[in-house]
Structures are given as C-alpha cells and as structure tokens.
Design brief:
heterotrimer, A mainly alpha (342), B alpha+beta (515), C alpha/beta (624), A: 342 residues, mainly alpha, B: 515 residues, alpha+beta, four-stranded mixed β-sheet, 15 helices
C-alpha cells in the first residue's frame, strides 16, 4: 500500500512568513525591469536545477540498464546497451548531450516504458496539473476567507472557545496524512454510499474526491497561516485609521485587510503549490489518476534515468514558473514587493 | 504479496501462461444463455504497460494487454498441460530445431494475411541486435534462425534448447505493417488477435474493439461467439484496494486482487494462478558462512517452513513442493519432501556451534509488504536463536535485484528472502544456479553444486516425461545441500464481476461477458 | 542622524526593543515570562501541556512498559482483528499492534524532533548567509534556496536514503534536509526584514561588524517564528516518515516506527481498519500536540496576541478622583467619568480611571503624560473606537452634541448609520506613525476619498475629485498624481498631510492628533503643526493634541491636560505652564525633565526617577 505525504516533505506546512508588513526601501522599480530581473534569475535557477538533477540521478546507486533489461540479459547485452545509451561517455559529454536534448525537447526514451520521455510527460502532465491547480484553487478559496473570518472572530482574545475549537480542528486536519484522508473519503463517499466514483479520471464528479483528499490538510494549514497574518494585519495602524472612518466590518476586512493579506497568501500559495504537485503522487495511486506522480516514483525506483530526470525537471519548472507568475501578480497587486530584493 | 513481485518474476520466464493465469479448471460455469452480446469488458492491470509492441517489451502488463490483440503460435491447454493449436495447427520439435505449420487463412485485424514468412520475420526482428529487443535470449535464442517455406515456419539453433517449442510458441506475433513501423505499435496494435486497440490514454486506460473474421481462437472461440465483448477496456489501477473497490462497484469486470482485500471479494467468482511467493536463496560466495553446506542446512533447519509459509502468504498460500511454480508446468514433481532438512531448532543450534566461527548473515528481503517484513523478522529471530548474527536489509524488488543479482560486490549479501525464481520450465534454472558466478555470469549466488551440474548435463538432451524425471533428480541435489529453498506458493486470484474466462490464460478470446 | 530616513518610525539606534515600545496598543507592558504563564494557564496552554506530557510519557516509558509485549509473536494469530487480548489486533507476524504502537512512540517522536531540529539548523545557517555574506554571494545563496524549494524533496529523500543506507538515521537526515530549504527561505525573509530596518543600517554605517549585527539584531528577531514553525514541523516530519516508508526507505525491520507500521497496515484498511486507525490516531495526536505547542509558543512570544480566556470584569467603583472640569457651554467634546479597563494576567488593569474633561469648539487642547499614562486610550475611547476585550464605561461622552454612551458603556463602533456618518465626517484623526497609519496596499487617493464615498453621498468620481482637492488643500504638490500613488511613495510628512486631508473630506469639528509629529524630524514636525493650526483657524476645528513632549504642547496648545497613570492630575493653561505655575508635582517633574526645547525624543523622562510615585489626586480644576 501507499503512503506518501510529500506535502510535508516539501515545505513543513507551518513554515510561512510571519510578517505581513514588508520592508520598503527606495522608490521606482518598474514592472518591466522587475520581470526582466526575475527572468534572469529564473534562467539561472533552471540551470542550477537541471545540473543538480542531472548529477543526483546519477548518484543513485544501481544499474539502470540491468533494471531495464531484466535479470536474464547477459553481461554482454547489458554492456552493449550501456554503450549505445551513452552511459559510458564522460560525465560532461552526457551533461552537454542532456542540455542539447532538453533544448530540443528530446529527453530520450524511457528505459522501462520504451517510450519517448517527452511523450510520456506530455500525456500525463495535464492530469497532474489539473489535480494540483484545482486543489490549489480550493485551498485558496477556502483558507483565505476562513482564516480572515476566524481572525476577525477571535482577534484580541475574543471568543476563546471559537479560537480553541478552530486551533484544534485545523491542527487536526493539518496533520491527517492525505492518504488516510483519501481512503476515508473513498470509503464513505464511494464504497459505502456510491455517491462518487471510486477512482479514475472521467467525468467531473471523479475530480471531487482526489481534489478534496489533496486539499483538506493543506487548506487547514494555510488557513492557520492566513489567520495569523490576518491577526497581524488587524493590529496594524491603518486598520485603526480605517475604523475611524466608520465603515462596515465587511468593508473593513475585505477592502482594507484583504489586500494586505494577498501578498502573504500568494507567497504561501507558491510554496504550497510545490507540495501539492508532489502530493499528487500518493493521491494518484489511491485514485488511479493517470498523472506523473506515480510515474516518477516508479522511474526513480527502477533507475529509469531519462524518465526520472525529465519528470523532476518538469516538476521543478512548474514550481519555478508558478512562483515567477505569482511574484508578477504580487507586484501588480502590491508594488512594494517589487522593491523587495530577495 | 503485491503484483509487482509477480511482475518481477516475469522477467525470468517468458510464457504468457505464467504472465496471466494458469491453473487447472476453468471459471466457466455461466451457461451460454447467460452471455451478453456485444458487451463491454473492463479489467485492471497494476502499472502502466508502456510500449505495447510485444516484440520490445518484457513487462508482464504489456503481455497481458497484448493477449487481446496478438496471438501466439501455440496455445498451452491448461487442462492437459499440452500444446494445442492456435496460429499453428501442428509442430515438430528436437533440441535444436522446431517447426510450426500455420493455419490457413489467418488474417490481421486490417484484413491482410498472416503467413509463416510474417512469423519468421517477427523472430528474426527480435534476433537482430540492432533492434535491442529484450525478448532476445529470454524468448528467442540469440543463435536462432527463422525461415518460412509455404505455411511452415522453421527455427533452428546451434546449441540445444530443450523447451524452445514452448518459448517461441508463446511469443506474441505482429503483422507485416507493424513490423515495418514498430513505433506505430507503441500505442496501437497490428495483430491477428480478436481485438484492435482504439485508444491509449497513458497511465490511465487502453480501449480495444472487437474485429470481424476471427476464427482460430483456442477452443473454437471466434468473433461471433456469444459473450465475446464488443469493447475491452484496460484500466491501470496500482492499488489492490482500489481494484477491489472498483470490482465491487462494478466499474471493473476482472482484476487480480491479492492480500487482505480478498476478504471483501468473497462473493465474487475467482480464478487462482499459483505462483512462487517465497524463496530463500543462500549466497555461496567464497568466504561467506553460507558457502558451507553444513551452515546452509543448519539455517534451514532453524526455520519452521510451515510457519514461514503462513506468515509470508498471510495464511493464503501453501508449501512449495519444488522450484517449479508455474501452472500448468511442463513437469510436476516434489523435490522438497525428504530432501530438504526438516525443522529442528536444537539440531540447528548445535550444527551452527559446531562450525566454530561466528555466523554473520545479511538477509536481503522484500519490505514492500507487511507479510514480507514480518517473515524476514521471523527468519532473523529463528536464526539468532540458533546462534547466528543477522542484519536485515530490506527494499523493494528493484532493490533486491540490485543487492543480489546486479550487485557489483557479489559478497554483499548472505541470504535473500524475496528473490523468487519463477518458472515452470526446469531448463531455465541452470543458467542461474550454475556456471560462471556473478558479476561475470548470471549465477548470482555463486552456486557450484557438482551433483547438480552433472545431473543437468544428463537432462539437457531429453524430452517429454523422461526429461522431467531427469530434472527432478537434478533439483533434488539442490535441496539436499540446501542451496536454495522454495518456501511458499500463493494462489494469486483474478476476481470476476459480470464476466468470466472460459479457459486460461485469462484474456483475449477467453473472455465472456455475462448478462 | 543622516540615516534616519523620514519614512521610518524607529529611532535610529534604539533597536527592536525600543521599536515596540513606541506604539502602545496594549496599555500595559507584559513581561514575556508573564505572558508565557498567562498562555500556559489558558485552556489552550493547559491542553498543549497535557498532550505534550502524554506524548513524552509514551516516548520515555513506551518501550520499557510495552517493549516485551511488542516482541511476543503469537504465530496462531497472524493479522488478527481486534479482540480482548489484542485491542488493535495483531500484525502479519502475530504481534500485538497496540503494544507496538506504544513502543514505537519513542523512535517516531525522536526521529521527528531530530529531523525538525536538523531542518531548522541547516535552514537557519543557510538562510542567514545572505544577511552576513557579501552581496553577490548572498544573491547566489538566495537563488540556490529558490531552486532548492523547487526541487522535489522526494528525490532528495530517496538519494539521501539510498546513499546512506536505509534506516532511522537516513530517515532523520532525509526529512531534515528536505525541510531545510523552506526554513532557509523563512530565515532569509525574516532576516531581510530585520536588516532592512534602519537600526541595522545605522549599525552598519557605524562600522558594527556583520557577525555582531547577526547576533545582536538579526537572530533575536528570527528566533521566535522559527521555534514556532519548528514545533509544528515536528508533526509534519511524523507524516513525512510514513511517506518514506511508502517508498520502502523508512525505518527498517526489526526496528519499527509509526510510519512503517501504518504503511504496512494500510493494505488491510478496508478489511481491518483498526491498526491503521490506531496508528493514524497516534500520528494525528502527536501532530496536533506539536501544533498546539507551536501555537502556545507563538502566543507566548507574542507573535500574535494572546487570547486569554475572558475574565469576569470586576465591578468596583472608580479608584481615582474624578475632577470636575471646567464646564463649557457648548463643547465639541464633553467627557464625564471615562474609564477604560483591560484584561491583564488574571485580573483587570484600569489604564484610564474615570476622567472628565471638556473641549470647546475651536480650542486646541494638549494632553501630556508619559508612555502608558492612558493618553492614546483616552483618544480612542472618546472616539468610540475601543473594542473588546477593553471595557470602556462613562457616565457621559458627548461629541458634537451627540451622546455616545449607551447604558453606561462607550461601544466600540457607531450604533447607527447616522452616528457613523457624524463620527466619520465630523471627527478626524491624525495618528502617530505615518508609515503605518496609511494602508500600504491602497492608493492614497482612494483612502482619502473613502469618507466621501461612505458618508458624503459622493459618487466614486466625485469622491476622487474631492480627494485631489483635499490633497491640494494640505499643500501637497501635484495632488492628482499623488492621489494615484501608494503610501510608500510618500515621505513621512507627506503621509501626515494625507492623513489630515483624509480628515478634511468631511467638515471636522474635532481633530484628534495622537502624537502626530513624534516620528517626524523637526522641520517636517513644524510643517505638520502649521497645517494643523491652519485647519484650526480656517475651519474652526478643535484639536485634541496628544504628546509626551510638554514643551511642544506648551508651544502649540492653548490648554493642557496632564495625565498620570490613567488620571488627569492637572488641567492648566499653557500660559500658566510656561510661567511655572504648575501645581502638581508630576507636572513640575515633567517640566523639569525637559532639557531644552529640541529635546531628543527618547530621553524626555530621563530625569524622572524610575519608580517615582506621584499622587493621583488632581490638584486644580482646569481653566481656559
């Protein structure tokens, strides 16, 4: 059976920035210049990612060719295969060839599945992305309003019972392993009551359970971060200023507080996305979801170099590019963040 | 046990009978009246089959899918364990030459004819090193030469190949068009089988539709036989629990489920495929304590193999009677009884003390299931009680292979529990249990049993029942010196809901959909 | 000091401690130990402590008490379902699952805690590098952290496990290292926010070494959030261990932790859910415990406000004399018996003790007193802006002829739309810290225009036009462009002008200016005061001017109220004050403590002896 809470491996759920107020120094910093700067950084992040992945995959002990050919292949056959795959070339030659392949979107053939890696990725990536982004959307849609509402209800020590209930419940949901959640959801909504499909990616109803299983723990964790941020924001002087104008609570929270929460929420979203993408591994197993999650585990285990490094790089690119997009969105929403020189 | 272990086993042997389902008896008990016309059949495999071209894949799941679109030269009748006609209507065999006479009027799904020449082209394509087919050696000997004359296919080799008739007879064959464009077969089909692949959704499903004019199926199965499904869907479902859920909810008609979830499927009809699920292999590498037959025998004595079987198989399996696990097997014999040392912990302790030096053991085991780990812990405890020092070294099947079979350091392990040699063909064994040791050769446990080597040489030239007797004698020599211990056989079950298989192996023309 | 940019509130070298003392959102300074005790005594604290003790008990005594039972294999009972003998059933080797769950507590918890500690340690070391390293290297480290975050931890964990060999050690290392990048990012973000502050910049210019800055300024500021997150991460490490077990890379037999056991029991979850549920419960319980501990720490460190339980407010009478103020005929503000109570520890503090005063129309009244004397609370209370958990009572608070007191209490918000409109348009505020009192995420123009939109019945466009007009009225150059800018593009003085412009959207009868110039340098201070005076003159707006700077008050106001420990101890005209006719010893001490008119803020009370006591009785009735 399967257990793979990579969410937590990736981020350590609670680790979000705790300060909503950014530092701002200097003026200027136009969007264009910012994007150029970030693109340059993205470029060398990608180079680092590719290099590290390339080296790391080769660090994994074991013979990929032996794994691919099975134990009945003779040593001579294995050696011939090795040679023809270029595994006997010097490392830097392999590295350059790898880059060449990457730039022409030709990552070689999977050792185990005998199909072009790019084909496998193209076919399965959409399913994983759907799962990850739908979950991200659900996480944000639930956790931000929830965090704000709970913060509003409990700010300054009000309603200690609500506080205690929320803290316990969110703490509880945040640590329920997602596979346990997945199995429980399947048991109650599919096996027992036949309300939703057991597994597979077919009609829209088949999305409900996997997305829920992937999102609930993360949403609970993120709502805690949002709430902590919201509490900080509510203490800010500008909220007092706004209150002095005598407006409705709704307007106070969502017009004045929310924009200041978007920064941290989106930053958290960037971190969470990486873990959601990785968290799909287990969910895909439970729900037989035809994505990349399961493929990568098998690829790494069977030392399917081309496939493993291809998928890891694609995963990394998703996270890097999403974070770039999030940063750009942030700058549009809150120009101060362009000035942060992180 | 999970299906991965079975998949690994398939790397060793090449018969679809093992690949899918063997066993005696048939699941057919729905009368003709109960069959649905033009129904839909959905079944599950546990991992992505990858490239579906049967000439380039050793993956068991690809072979299972292949059974629907491709036929083999002969059909191994599960009731008689004898070859029966399929693409070939008759055959001849000798240790270095086999011939198959093909049926007339065999057509591919697209209507083009399938001839002996096409079959020869298939085999020669595999033999061509440029094609890097993993079927080379595992199925088709590297020194094989295939030729066709009229409707007769002839394959010759330079060295004797005792079971070549069955090996080549089990290769799924593709049609000319596919042979010319192998890439088109990666996610499609071009064969003589009853179904043609429509659509492949990677990692998810493969959809096939019934062709017309199929008349050469085993047991008179044709495309017009009642109950033959119109559509077949293969779903990739890795989790056995999920497969059970899908079976129960009717989203699947057939799937192999093994382990605890079987309890929930008690109401469904099932078809077992016994397979080797537990085997202890001792490493005979020079310098290891297990190079000494006395130590191996003592260690074997220390374990109650009945208890170990119970733990390993979760109470579902039984003791193995020989190294042969596949059903139907070419031979049937019991080499364990009276040859393998029996359970006697006191004697084991004395024997180990008599060795006079510490017995340090690294036990490599399959930790991917609770039963595998519990079994390893049981073995370790028994051995420690007898006076050995045991280090447990667990991993999945790939890890076990890399620690044992593909290890750079052949002395890095002492014993393994989880590396199961799986075959019904005793002639497969010598290449793993004798000859040049690893890493140069495939004799991964560095076994050098003179009696065995001699008996094998004597058995190689024989055929039929005579051969089986000779192979049994050879195997007994392995048991008496406790070279490797076959422990348990588990009946992996395929469960059916709304469908059945008229005969084995399950797949292709054997499937019938119920009303 | 040159480095004291106009935009930042903190005095240049005071450091973070001083920075927190400037504002006074809570009336009393609670010591951290006291806050910790307070949190511990809350239901949350008690719950966390109890849970932590349970976890610790099983971690310490589990293997001692149940270790033997966990080893006993009953080979007739393999994978048995729960029974009286085996409450959670047995495993595949016939051993009691419950005993094994309890025994495994130690290994599971130790692994989790150690890996969280490792992740934090490595993360902090890497995350601090950009702070102390040369700029170029720092950027490199930053981008490395970025890549590490994008790198699937799964692969990292697999590589670590395979390289080091599987087992508890590599589980710890793998999880720890996989967590490190997010801690590095957190540390780096926190560190950057600290180093961005002026006291660090100033320290740098003064030649303080990077290492010293790190130890003195950066570490203390990143420590608390890190501890909080680390305690939560220990819980996630538990779950991560089950992930490694899924890959066969977890703790190996014969050792066992919850991860390995859960992974092995999952295969039977539909048939025999008891072991999985038991293990799930153990993991969830420990995880919640760690999360609660983190929450308690967070509150104890004041990362967010302690939410103590609601205490029953004691209903004693007023403790201080309530001087009867001079009565104005038609005051813009009339306050009688105003009292503010705030929860503190187990009981209640009374930072404002039943004060009474009037402010006449067009008058400029100063309120002086040291930090914590209740000035700011008074301002907020009379404006009906103090909310729970503070209790504001008064016999009467009349603003602009409208009674704000309802059933003896001053509510935290306007009770009706018309009152909201009156308060929104007739009462204006200027707050102390211009860098924080404007919303950083909204355009200045939007914020100025809002009152017109809310209460003036203006359309969006009209409100906007009037906002630009108001910005021009406070002499902001190029107001149309300024209106489209964000507060961070303004200097401190400009922000205060914008705040005043915000007040001028309506027709304010009273401006409450709470230390409006404290954070500004002297030149800008003068400009802002001049603007306030102009508003006072041109619109007849009264000004309630709060300051701790008695000399400033003396030069700006017509009348002075002196506050000491929540009471108005003296009310006198600035003329009397200037001529040394102050009667109360506290007032005299205040005057004496002023070294000269341009006193450096931060030293103003230097000569009032710490802990000096002054009588709380008012000495003289106020006179205009």
């Amino acid at each position: 059976m399967t257990t793979e809470p990579t969410v937590t491996l990736l981020t350590g759920t609670g680790a979000g920035p705790d300060s909503a107020t950014g530092t701002f120094r200097g003026r200027g910093g136009r969007l264009g210049a910012f994007i150029v700067r970030r693109l340059v950084r993205l470029a060398y992040s990608v180079v680092t990612l590719v290099t590290v992945v390339f080296l790391m995959v080769r660090l994994i002990p074991g013979d990929p060719v032996r794994n691919a050919l099975g134990i009945n292949a003779t040593a001579a056959v294995v050696e011939a295969q090795r040679e023809s795959l270029g595994l006997n070339d010097p490392l830097w030659t392999q590295y350059l060839n790898f880059w060449k392949g990457l730039l022409t979107w030709d990552l070689g053939d999977s050792f185990s599945l005998h199909l072009p890696v790019t084909t496998i990725i193209e076919q399965r990536l959409p399913a994983t992305l759907e799962l990850a982004f739908l979950s991200l959307a659900l996480v944000l849609l639930v956790s931000i309003p929830l965090g704000i509402v709970v913060a509003a209800l409990t700010r300054g020590g009000r309603r200690p019972t609500v506080d205690l209930a929320y803290t316990s419940a969110s703490g509880l949901f945040a640590v329920i392993p997602e596979f346990l959640m997945g199995v429980a959801l399947v048991y109650f909504f599919a096996v027992q009551s036949h309300l939703l499909p057991v597994a597979g990616r077919t009609d829209p109803s088949s999305y409900v359970l996997p997305v829920l299983a992937l999102s609930i723990a993360v949403a609970a964790g993120v709502s805690r971060i949002v709430r902590a941020e919201a509490l900080t924001v509510f203490e800010q002087d500008y909220i007092r200023t706004a209150r002095a104008k005598r407006m409705s609570r709704w307007r106070l929270y969502f017009r004045h507080a929310l924009p200041n929460l978007v920064t941290s929420s989106l930053t958290v979203a960037g971190i969470v996305l990486g873990s959601l993408v990785a968290g799909t591994v287990l969910i895909e197993t439970i729900f037989s979801w035809p994505g990349l999650g399961l493929t990568i585990v098998d690829a790494v285990r069977s030392k399917d170099f081309p496939l493993a490094q291809g998928i890891v790089i694609v995963y990394g690119l998703i996270v890097l590019v999403s974070n770039l997009l999030i940063d750009i969105v942030l700058v549009c929403l809150d120009p101060r963040s362009a000035l942060k020189d992180t | 046990m999970n299906r991965r272990a079975a998949a690994f086993a398939a790397l060793l042997i090449a018969l679809p009978a093992l690949a899918a389902c063997g066993g005696s008896g048939s699941a057919s008990d729905g009368g003709q009246a109960g069959f649905a016309t033009d129904g839909t059949f959905a079944f599950a495999i546990d991992s992505d089959p990858g490239d579906l071209n049967p000439l380039v894949t050793n993956l068991i799941n690809a072979q299972i899918v292949g059974m629907y679109s491709y036929d083999t030269l002969i059909f191994l009748d599960p009731e008689t364990a004898k070859p029966a006609p399929f693409l070939a209507k008759s055959w001849t065999e000798s240790p270095t030459k086999v011939t198959y006479t093909l049926n007339d009027a065999i057509t591919c799904a697209d209507g083009t004819p399938f001839t002996a020449q096409t079959a020869a082209d298939n085999l020669n394509w595999i033999v061509d090193p440029a094609n890097k087919s993993p079927r080379l050696e595992s199925v088709v000997p590297a020194d094989a030469k295939a030729s066709a004359k009229g409707n007769v296919l002839t394959v010759t080799t330079s060295k004797p190949r005792p079971f070549m008739l069955y090996d080549i007879g089990a290769q799924q064959l593709v049609c000319e068009r596919g042979l010319k464009d192998p890439k088109s077969l990666s996610a499609g089909s071009d064969g003589t089988g009853p179904f043609a692949i429509d659509r492949v959704v990677a990692g998810d499903s493969i959809t096939m539709t019934r062709r017309e004019g199929y008349t050469w199926g085993p047991k008179n199965s044709t495309s017009n036989t009642p109950g033959m499904p119109k559509t077949v869907t293969t779903k990739i479902v890795p989790s056995p629990s999920t497969r059970a859920n899908l079976l129960l909810s009717g989203q699947l008609n057939a799937a192999i489920v093994s382990g605890k979830d079987e309890e929930r499927l008690a109401a469904l009809k099932s078809q077992p495929t016994p397979a080797m699920s537990g085997m202890i292999v001792y490493n005979h590498h020079q310098g290891l304590p297990t190079a000494d037959a006395a130590v191996r025998r003592a260690l074997t004595q220390a374990i109650d193999l009945d208890t170990l079987t119970k733990i390993l198989t979760g109470g579902k399996g039984e003791r193995a009677k020989s190294l042969l696990s596949e059903h139907p097997s070419r031979c049937a014999y019991d080499t364990v009884q009276g040859n393998l040392p029996s359970y006697d912990p006191d004697a084991a302790g004395q024997a180990l003390r008599a060795v006079g030096k510490p017995v340090d053991i690294t036990l490599v085991y399959d930790n991917s299931t609770d039963t595998g780990s519990a079994a390893a812990e049981y073995v370790a405890k028994q051995w420690e009680t007898a006076g050995a020092a045991v280090k447990l070294d667990g991993g999945d099947e790939n890890y076990i292979i890399s620690r044992t079979f593909a290890a750079k350091d052949p002395s890095g392990w002492t014993a393994s529990l989880g590396l199961n040699l799986q075959t019904g063909t005793p002639a497969i064994f010598p290449q793993y249990l004798s000859g040049p040791a690893a890493p140069a050769g495939t004799n991964f446990a560095s076994i050098d049993n003179k009696d065995y080597n001699r008996s094998v040489a004597a058995a190689a030239d024989r055929t039929g029942d005579d051969a089986c007797k000779a192979w049994a004698e050879a195997e007994k020599t392995l048991m008496t010196s406790a070279d490797l211990i076959p422990v348990s056989v588990t009946p992996y079950k395929m469960y059916f809901n709304g469908a059945t298989a008229l005969y084995l192996p399950v797949g292709g023309s054997a499937i019938r959909v119920l009303k | 000091m040159a480095v004291t940019s106009m935009s930042t509130p903190d005095s240049a070298l005071a450091g973070p401690a001083a920075a927190t003392a400037v504002g006074e959102p809570m009336p009393m300074a609670v010591s951290s130990r006291r806050r910790f005790l307070t949190v511990l005594r809350s239901p949350l604290g008690i719950g966390a402590l109890a849970a932590l003790m349970v976890v610790a008990f099983f971690a310490v005594f589990g293997p001692v008490l149940w270790g033997e039972a966990a080893r006993q294999a009953d080979l007739t009972q393999l994978s048995a379902k729960p029974s009286a003998d085996h409450l959670l059933g047995t495993d595949a080797g016939g051993r009691d699952v419950l005993a094994r769950v309890l025994t495994a507590t130690r290994l599971s918890i130790v692994t989790a805690v150690l890996s969280a500690a490792l992740g934090v340690f490595v993360g902090v070391v890497i995350g601090l590098l950009p702070t102390i390293a040369p700029r170029r290297l720092g950027r490199l480290v930053n981008s490395a952290i970025g890549v590490a975050l994008a790198f699937p931890a799964l692969l990292l964990a697999i590589v670590v496990s395979i390289t080091l060999g599987v087992g508890a050690t590599s589980v710890t290392l793998a999880i720890g290292l996989a967590m490190a990048p997010s801690y590095a990012r957190l540390t780096q973000t926190l560190g950057a926010s600290v180093t961005g502050r002026d006291f660090v910049a100033a320290a740098r210019i003064l030649g303080v070494s990077r290492a010293r800055i790190l130890v003195r300024h950066v570490l203390p500021n990143v420590r608390d959030p890190l501890i909080v997150n680390a305690s939560i991460s220990a819980g996630t490490a538990l779950v991560a261990a089950t992930g490694l077990s899924f890959l066969g890379l977890g703790v190996q037999a014969p050792d066992y932790d919850w991860g390995r056991m859960l992974n092995e029991s999952m295969g039977a979850i539909y048939v025999n859910p008891a072991p999985s549920l038991g293990l799930g419960a153990a993991i969830v319980f420990a995880g919640v415990t760690f999360a609660l501990a983190g929450e308690v720490l967070a509150r104890a460190f004041g990362l967010h406000r302690p939410s103590g339980r609601r205490r029953r407010r004691k209903t004693t009478g007023s403790t201080a004399a309530s001087p009867v103020p001079q009565v104005a005929a038609d005051p813009v503000l009339r306050v009688r018996g105003l009292r503010v109570e705030a929860p503190r520890g187990d009981g209640w503090a009374t930072p404002v003790r039943g004060i009474s005063f009037d402010i006449d129309r067009g008058e400029i009244v100063g309120i002086v007193g040291e930090s914590g004397s209740g000035k700011s609370l008074t301002c907020m209370a009379v404006a009906s802006l103090l909310e729970e958990p503070l209790h504001v009572t008064a016999s009467s608070v009349q603003f602009d002829g409208t009674e704000l007191v309802v059933r003896g209490k001053v509510p935290g918000r306007a009770r009706s739309k018309s009152l909201a409109q009156q308060l929104g348009t007739r009462l204006a505020f200027v707050f102390q810290d211009p860098s924080t009192s404007l919303n950083p995420a909204l355009h200045v123009g939007t914020q100025v225009a809002e009152v017109g939109l809310l209460h003036g019945g203006l359309s969006r466009r009209e409100a906007r036009r009037r906002a630009v007009d108001r910005l021009a009225a406070v002499r902001l150059s190029d107001p149309a462009r300024r209106a489209r800018q964000y507060p961070h593009e303004f200097s401190g003085g400009m922000r205060q002008r914008a705040t005043i412009a915000m007040g001028l959207m309506g027709e304010p009868a009273l401006v409450i200016a709470d230390e409006p110039t404290t954070a500004l340098d002297v030149t800008v201070q003068r400009e802002v005061l001049a603007l306030l005076r102009r508003v006072n003159r041109e619109h007849g707006t009264a000004v309630m001017f709060v300051s701790h700077d008695i000399s400033l008050v003396a030069s700006f106001c017509t009348r002075v109220l002196v506050m000491y420990r929540g009471a108005i101890v003296e009310s006198l005209s600035t003329e009397d004050l200037a001529n040394g006719r102050a009667a109360h010893p506290y007032t005299r001490a205040l005057v004496a403590a002023v070294p000269h008119m341009d006193a450096d803020p931060g030293t103003e009370f230097a000569t009032i002896t710490e802990g000096a006591e002054f009588p709380l009785d008012a000495v003289r009735e106020g006179s205009v």
